[in-house]
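Aim 2 progress update. The chain analyzed this quarter is reproduced below.
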Amino acid sequence: MNLLKVEKYNLTIYRWIMEDFLKKCLFSNYKYSIIIAVSYYLLPPISLIVPVKDAWDRPFIFLIISFILIPLIIFITSIVFASYHILQWYFSLRIFILGLPYILFGTPLLIVGAVFFVISIIGQYIGTLIYENSHTKN
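Predicted structure tokens:
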């Protein structure tokens, strides 16, 4: 009987910790997730909408969006996030998780996810330096 109460208490604590973690990771900073999700899923189809003169311009626009614009958005968003919140690993994990559906497009998931993860960590490191410099002067 007493063992059952302890187990129930441990499950309650675990549930509370997980709920707190999810609120902190996902819901408190949702604006960054929205920016990244828009860059992942709304920018690449723009290459199909933009009028072009030559048939080879459309893949070129897609490559520019995929390999320059999206990593640049991730980099800038990571800098802004870390300049307010300091370096936090779950932000980079969130970027990786938001990129999981890229496997449907046929791109190698681990390569794309790893590159976006590293770009995010580098951006967060720069943002952390900005955070520390702004807080040491005060």
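Residues 59 and 83 are 35 Å apart (CA to CA). The mean pLDDT is 80. These observations will guide the mutagenesis experiments scheduled for the next reporting period.
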